Amino acid sequence: MSEGNMNLTLKVWRQKNAKVNGNLETYQVAGISEDMSFLEMFDVLNERLVSEGKEPIAFDHDCREGICGMCSMYINGRPHGPLEAVTTCQLHMRSFKDGDTIVVEPWRATAFPVIKDLVVDRTAFDRIIASGGYISVNTGNAQDGNSLPIPKEEADKAFAAAACIGCGACVAACKNASAMLFVSAKVSQLALLPQGQPEREERAIKMVAQMDAEGFGNCTNTGACAIECPKEISLENIARLNREFLSSSIASTVA
Amino acid sequence: MSWLTKTLSSSIGKKVLMSLTGLFLCTFLVVHLSGNLQLFYKDGGYAFNTYAVFMTTFPLIKVISYGNYFFILFHAFWGLYLEYQNRKARSVRYAVVRNSSSWSSRNMAILGTVLLVYIVVHMGDFWYKYHNEPLPYVQYRENVVTGERMFAEMPSSYKQDVKKVEISDLESGTHLVIVKDLYKEVSVAFQNPLLVLLYIIGMLAVGFHLYHGFQSAFQTLGWNHPKYTPLVRGISTWIFAILIPIGFAAMPIFFYVKHLMGN
Amino acid sequence: MSKKLDAKIPESTLSEKWTKYRSTVPLVNPANKRSIEIIVVGTGLAGASAAATLAELGYKVKAFCFQDSPRRAHSIAAQGGINAAKNYQNDGDSVYRLFYDTIKGGDYRAREANVHRLAEVSGNIIDQCVAQGVPFAREYGGLLSNRSFGGTQVQRTFYAAGQTGQQLLLGAYSGLERQVGIGTVTMYSRHEMLEVVVIDGKARGIIARNLITGEIERHFGHAVLLCTGGYGNVFYLSTNAMGSNVTAAWKAHKQGAFFGNPCFTQIHPTCIPVSGDHQSKLTLMSESLRNDGRIWVPKQKDDKRAANDIPEAERDYYLERRYPAFGNLVPRDIASRAAKERCDAGYGVGTSKMAVYLDYASAIDRYGKIEANKNGMHNPSHEEIITMGKAVVKEKYGNLFDMYKQITGEDPYEVPMRIYPAVHYTMGGLWVDYNLMTTVPGLYALGEANFSDHGANRLGASALMQGLADGYFVIPYTIGSYLSGEIRTKAIPTDHPAFVEAENKVKERINTFLTIKGKQSPESFHKRLGKIMWEKCGMARNEQGLKEAIEEIRALKKEFWSDLRVMGDADEFNPELDKAGRVADFIELGELMCMDALNRNESCGGHFREEYQTEEGEALRDDENYMYVAAWEYEGDSQWVLNKEPLVYENIKIAQRSYK
Known about the structure:
The complex is a heterotrimer of chains A (about 260), B (about 260) and C (about 650).
Chain A: E1 6-14, E2 23-32, H1 38-51, E3 74-75, E4 78-79, E5 101-105, E6 114-116, E7 119-120, H2 123-130, H3 152-162, H4 169-173, H5 180-192, H6 200-213, H7 224-228, H8 236-251
Parallel strand pairs in A: 1-5
Antiparallel strand pairs in A: 1-2, 3-4, 3-5, 6-7
Helix pairs in contact in A: 2-6, 3-5, 5-6, 5-8, 6-8
Chain B: H1 3-9, H2 11-36, H3 46-57, H4 59-88, H5 103-106, H6 108-132, E1 137-143, E2 149-153, E3 164-169, E4 174-180, H7 182-189, H8 193-220, H9 229-260
Antiparallel strand pairs in B: 1-2, 1-4, 3-4
Helix pairs in contact in B: 1-2, 2-4, 2-8, 2-9, 4-6, 6-8, 8-9
Chain C: H1 14-24, H2 30-33, E1 37-41, H3 45-57, E2 60-64, E3 82-83, H4 95-105, H5 112-132, E4 146-147, E5 157-158, H6 164-182, E6 185-188, E7 191-199, E8 202-210, E9 216-220, E10 223-226, H7 247-254, E11 259-260, E12 265-271, E13 294-298, E14 315-316, H8 318-322, H9 332-347, E15 356-359, H10 361-374, H11 382-408, E16 417-426, E17 429-430, E18 443-445, H12 463-478, H13 480-483, H14 497-516, H15 522-537, H16 543-563, H17 575-599, H18 623-626, E19 628-636, E20 639-646
Parallel strand pairs in C: 1-2, 1-10, 2-6, 10-18
Antiparallel strand pairs in C: 3-5, 4-5, 7-8, 8-9, 11-17, 11-19, 12-16, 13-14, 13-15, 15-16, 19-20
Helix pairs in contact in C: 1-5, 3-6, 3-12, 4-5, 5-12, 10-11, 15-16, 15-17, 16-17
């Protein structure tokens, strides 16, 4: 059932579960069409593995339209592959050449332990949000939506930060496996909006504390995160997080 | 934990310590370079040698210099500790990595370690010797009327208890200054090509370290602004990564070339 | 009305039903709430908002999702916007108009009382989301911006670029995580619900599988809320996420919850066409693109010229031609059918000839001229106009255009996009009463998982509205009418025989999957099911095709249970096993959908029976015989009983839907 004429060599990380060691295994795939998405190429490979009585490769994916943040492959040394501003599920085979060798690894971070093959556990991100990445407003408390005008520029900036899909590519790309871009995106979104002001100081302190507790590395401002971010979250957010955190810790009266 | 230790032990706090000490050291470099540019004066080392006295005796400078030593050590070892932590945050490494960040930014720890080695050699060469070894003295005799200044080495047996002896003889119209001849020490030391090479390597490390370090310090402090960040980046690149290292490296090269040309 | 179906619609005038009911529904006092446990399955807009709100009220909540994080639920992919009757644009909108548009858009197959309530709370949703920090698009004055969607003539759609669903879900998710942090919600991610536990006729818990360890877990709840989304993936190719499935709803159905209008499927007109057999899913291009884009095909059959080489006079803007009043903004079902009609008639474009053009050339030109005027340019060159026009289009739709280019390799700024309809949403779902309770007491269905608000066709930007309405503003009130009678019910220990039995059933089924050891993967069965469904129960259906489909699905089911191959084990992370269970349920559902479509001898909304159409090819309803909700009761393998809930329209004059 070959649809195209690309032949590729894949080296894919296989690891049965979190407790055992893994290794890169080599697979040859043939007849790949350049209109296929990268994950569809994996579908083809998995179908073949099943027909050969072998275990298919486990990988995370869901929406396949670049918004849910579930897909997470580290392809040829870069999270989400060679293109910028694109998730793995939106990467198509036309970005590769016939005969290429493609190395696919899971996100690597101590805070993102491997579950199986290319699947990692990113619940650390949920715990960071749970520590303060919200505005405390119970349902029904809200006033009219237009009672609080927000300058378009601020709203746009907040939106740009809120575009984060929580995929973890920033952590995967960072040489220190730092989660600063993720945390800064949420802190920035809420710090830029008037609704976020009441909890602004506490939020930055709590989220940074949780981030540190999860075992992410320290930010050294290499900027790899922002370059690899599929949603192009800006480094300015990290500066803003630093500012928020420092002013909350030093200048505020919060204990 | 108090709010302060809590703040400083957080990942951002730790980085702020790196940032602040780093910026202090950047300032030091500017001062150090501008002082040492006096090595290029054709005055038999008068300006440089008297400057050395000033720097080692003026109380405020002394206090700052002890701070400086401490910050160098703190910046170095704190940085290594952070590097250790950062490596721990990725216990299994990637098989293939294609980096999108700058080489400098990824190699701050290695560059810093090279710098630390360099600083030890540098301090051993000049600072230690100046403070602890019997360097020869040099005497400068200035004609206060013409402003002409003659210099002469003092006999090797000459010693004085203070760093600088100054005698003004109004009748003969001369002003006499006797100080340790660090200038000579420098010019002799840089006749050794290996040392010159080490200094050039050291300055390359400074350049790459500060190419990332200077502007990174601003980012850590939260100073990222669309209008001013380009300026900070410009300073980082042109002043700290290029101009200052070239300025420093020019000194050993200058003396080495001078030596080769037989002066 | 069937004896078994009591919609419990409050007695009162339409506009007072909800207000009155809300004020009289029994309450549970705060102390009692603390000892009442509620299970919420699914964490999309409906699930996350319900879980967060119920926890705020004081209930003990357990939330489940199969994804690795609640933030990934497929609500996140909704692009265009969310409707609300705010009338901020002063263009004549009102609660009544939103209510009316929704009923009409649904082709008069939705319940009046539910839809009116939806319209009433729509405004509160926007307020709540703004308060949570959802960054909606704003005007320069700082106030909220709106745009138009299909099937309406007012601007009532609130949006956040092309990522409205994402921003709304992240808002609900942050509310949910806040409760997780406080400890009032326990979150179970990477867990899949595999059975509802019913004790003495009431839903009392679920059996869930931990997808990481494979462990089968028992969870008790005084009530169970299914917020598990739609079942569009029964067609294999759809705009749904890969993991979207019917399993939770289907288990509930087999435990006694009736399934309402299963054949009502929404086919979205603007999706990127299929490019080959490898295709695993379809990608939507937001309906908002129809605000500015024009849809056309060549006037000449089988025209092989490139789009840009076809002169204006030889283009057929068929939507503008057929529906001058609404033009390119007709409702989705109508736009989809019109595209299919043109392609079937041989006017399709692209290599497959199963696509039509969505063209931005005239919008680029129009915006370019406006910009030129704004900038005081008097004789702009054509190039200048195009450049400025492109910039405006980029700002409005840039992310969608980029996505199109990424997927197709073509630049939509230069050549028209090729689009074709694709399965997008399912109006059908578990039958629920006014309280959102299914026919199993204590078992609720919210959001897309229920059937209630969209009739036979959903209007754009109404799914987000319904999900959040159900979760934030409906269930927190209506659940009281059930739970107020449960305050004396102590938590039932999970070693109760009903839990044991349910768990054994789940384990047995998993064991069966693993021991068939046939030759075909779950994926291959899914693909085959999808092909049957799309061809015979898709955009157009007929009696013969549906009968064939039922036979084919039954045969497929047999083959599935004898030739399935599932690799791996039960006690580990095993996506193949998860998939097998979902496909098994889809196969059974597919059969029911075909039966429902066969039963409904009329065309309405998304359900188009070829036998029932007007001379102009429009859907021909049969209000006399089919103005009811078909609620199917499971009676055993391939056996269902049809229960009818008659639809009564007291406030709306039913008419043939016209967008001409």
